[in-house]
Please model this.
Amino acid sequence: MAEDQKQHKISSTLVNDEKKIIRKEVEKQRRMQMSILCSSLSSSLPFHLIKGKRSVSDQIGEAANYVQFLKEKVNELEVKRDKLKEIISSRMIETANIELSADPSNMVKCVNINQIPDGVEIVICLGFEDCGSRLSDLMKIIVQEGCDVVHCVTNHVNGKIFHTIKSEVEDLTHFDLARLQNKLDHAILLSR
Model:
């Protein structure tokens, strides 16, 4: 019986030792994983935020602050985007409401050119009946005047077609907006 107890003690000691070894290995793996994740986090942060901060807790604190800063920036940009959308839609509505007469076939064809950073934004408003004013003809004029078209969107709003064309211009100081405006107006009037 004493030998059974001795054998039982030895087997329970072996089981406890195995559990300790497994627990140590699991903890070692967890620490390695945390180390990898913390390194990845600190490499994702701007250098000026973690400069001089060696402890992991300081770096995690800076990461939390940076995430909060980015959230605020996103919110500011969303508000700015919504304001710009409102401005653009109100301009489109104003442009769409301008008419030469009560006759819908006589809708005003208009060109609005605005200077933007590195180029110009051209909004062309046409009626659906303007099949002759093909967008490709207008694009040729825009390119001939020295613009590199980078983006074009066509929308149908209240019986009118709006082409919004964004283009880059190499030298805005020598670019003649009025000449481009006149050429586009002339092309649209000739297509009637």
Summary: The first strand starts at residue 110 and ends at 116.
